[in-house]
């Protein structure tokens, strides 16, 4: 019986780094002159993984989101992990936007990844397991080829490769 090798394709976000980035962004907004005397807030719902940014107007809202994106990038959080909601009006003429952190690979993107792997004709099997994709095969080189192909692909979600077993 030949030995099966496998690895998992996941899309994870380090929540500690998200927290650090949010705190840094809040500090910068408090100290910046262009945000002086504004009612700008950055809130985070840990259960739903949603960042809510509120500011006096849409222009300032965009500036806060720009600060937030810079902090996320510096902390190693991929911007593809962020899904932006529509800018909506809030109380007292303010503007609000919700940004959802995408954790895990949704079914639609998992199917795309499996299809991409099948198209390569590399002798491996890919299966969707909850919010990740498991790739198994006999030859380690085949698995390495799949990882290399996925790293080079422009996927709609950031992916990491975990649980490499041989």
List the helices and strands and how they pair.
Blueprint (H helix, E strand, L loop, with lengths): L4 E6 L4 H17 L9 E5 L4 E6 L2 H17 L7 E3 L3 E2 L5 E7 L5 H13 L5 E5 L2 E6 L2 H13 L7 E6 L1
Antiparallel strand pairs: 1-8, 1-9, 2-3, 3-6, 4-6, 5-6, 7-8
Helix pairs in contact: 1-2
H/E series: EHEEHEEEHEEHE
Largest sheet: 5 strands, antiparallel
Label the CATH architecture of the largest domain. 2-Layer Sandwich
Mean pLDDT across every amino acid position: 90
CATH class of the largest domain: Alpha Beta
Number of strands: 9
How would you describe this structure to a colleague?
The protein is about 35% helix and about 30% strand. It has about 170 residues and is an alpha+beta fold. It has two domains: about 5-10 and about 105-165, Alpha-Beta Plaits, CATH 3.30.70; about 15-100, Alpha-Beta Plaits. Helix 1 (about 15-30) crosses helix 2 (about 60-75). It is elongated and about 65 Å long.
Q: How do you describe this structure in short?
A:
The chain is α+β, with helices and mostly antiparallel strands and 166 residues long. The chain is built from four helices and nine strands.
List the main descriptive attributes of the protein structure presented here.
Alpha-Beta Plaits, 9 strands, four-stranded antiparallel beta sheet, elongated, alpha+beta, 28% strand, 4 helices, 166 residues, five-stranded antiparallel beta sheet
